[in-house]
Amino acid sequence: MNKRYRYFLLCLVALGLFSCSDQWADHNEATQDLNNNLVQMIRADADLSTFASLLEQSGLDKQVASGSYSVWAPSNAALQNLPESITGNEEALRTFVGNHIGYQQRLSYQAEEAPIRVKMLNDKVNVLRQNSITSVDQTASFDYADRLSKNGVLYKIDSYLEPRKNVWEIVQQQSDNPVSQLVTGMTVTDTLTDETYNYFAYDVADLANEDSTYTFFLLSDNAYTTFKSAMEPYFKDTLPETEMLSMPLSLGLSKDLVFTTAYYDNVPDTILSVDSVKVAFHEDQVVEKINASNGVVYLMDGFDYKLSDKIPEIKIEGEYYDGLSDGSGPVNVRARNWASNNRDLLVINSGIAGYSVRYEVPQAHSTKYDIYWRAVNDDYIPRTNEQRIAVDSVQNELFSLMYVVPNTYEEVYVGQHEVQNYGDLRLLLQSYPTTSNDWNSLVLDYIRLVPVIE
User: Fold this and answer.
1) Rounded distance, CA 349 to CA 385, Å?
2) Fold of 13-157
3) Distance CA 444, CA 430 (A)
4) What is the reported pLDDT for 385?
5) What is the number of alpha carbons within 13 Å of residue 259 lying toward its C-beta?
6) What is the CATH number of domain 167-310?
7) What pLDDT, on the 0 to 100 scale, is given for residue 7?
8) In whole angstroms, how far apart are CA 71 and each of 6, 12, 323, 331?
């Protein structure tokens, strides 16, 4: 090892030791009482006697006496006006006390660079900063911090932190709201297990999850009716009409009301729903704002969204086929730098009349689509071949055979098709109906379905 390299390594080691020593210095400067556990330390501070009593009443004192925790204990003065709805209810008291006890030992200096999300004993998540702790929209400052006990860290804070309900609990409370009725009613029963579950929580968002953050829109009756009426034509179903909405329509409506960021304040003009739909936020449409432990709920008197995001075009790459008319066939996936995915599909020398390639298109909306393809005959055969698109079945002659002119790279309009019901759509690319290999070739870069919004 040369001297210069050895010197460089020594510098790195020294730098690391210096950094570690700074952190251990902060740790060691904290007040310590390593002979007593957290509960004993809390009881030893006369100004925490009220919290010590609440801790014992909640039954959490035994848990906090062992294990590894951080406690943010409000002073006696901070707890003077604690409402009876908390002190007089066993479950509410336990949830309240648990909102001041975090798992693991957290020292304030650890939040110097960035805030730390702390999981609390009541499953809520509070945010630790170097000089304060925040529970949703309440912030408490430290009278003292980082007092070390045998099994954790004690802080004294200048106000209490009342736990908030989560977004799902708030939605359930708003039972008269049409959106609340929509999402809480999205239940199905598994025929095998006989288990009933809410498919909104499975397919859209689990609004009860305290480890995630959400913004959720409840809509007024008028706003909801307008939105539902606009969406119904695009989610037609084969089932007979009932008062209950179909699963596709229920999901189609509810996905636009959930956002995976908690916009407590300074909401952007446009936000993106979990369904990747751009939704406009107008402050003057807010009827009520309710802060939750894992986000915020807005009651809105209007709902403005981008319809082209909601009913998007569909692009099918030629090489991603779902089936072939003969099960295998002479199919080539070619590398082409001009292709949309740098690849296209070529079927040549099949020896089969009307050879077809199948594409299953999921979640096509019930609307008209203009259909385009890009098919490039780049001299793979020395003539103009013919092919067509069939819908659902090769017997469907909605579209006629079309020429694929050699070395033409432009997108070509095929025709228009109206999807009657929301769901899967089957497209088939079919060759000229002859067994002659000089005439039954197929080629495809992509098919594009563009919804006709009327």
Assistant:
1) 13
2) FAS1 domain (2.30.180)
3) 11
4) 86
5) 23
6) 2.30.180.10
7) 41
8) 46, 37, 61, 66
CA atoms of 365 and 371, how far apart (whole Å)? 14
Burial of 29 (0-12, 13-18, 19+ CB in 10 A): exposed
pLDDT tens string 223-274: 999 999 999 999 998 765 555 789 999 999 999 999 999 999 999 999 999 9
Burial tier of 441 (Cβ tally within 10 Å: 0-12, 13-18, 19+): buried
Q: Cα 425 to the chain's mean position, in Å?
A: 26
In which residue ranges of the chain is CATH 2.30.180.10 found?
A: 13-157, 167-310
Average pLDDT over residues 191-212: 92
Going along 237-327, which residue ranges are E strands? 258-259, 270-272, 278-280, 286-292, 295-300, 304-305, 314-317, 323-324
How many residues in total does the chain contain? 454
The domain covering 314-451 belongs, at the CATH homologous superfamily level, to: Galactose-binding domain-like (2.60.120.260)
Q: Can you say whether the dihedral through the CA atoms of 416, 421, 423, 429 is positive or negative?
A: negative
**Residue with token string 């390299």:** 5
3-state secondary structure of 366: coil
Round to whole Å and give the CA distance between 357 and 261: 42
How far is it, in rounded angstroms, from Cα 367 to Cα 365? 6
End-to-end CA separation in angstroms for the chain: 76
- Start and end residues for every CATH 2.60.120.260 domain found in the chain: 314-451
CA distance 418 to 234: 11
> What mean pLDDT comes out for the span 73-80?
97
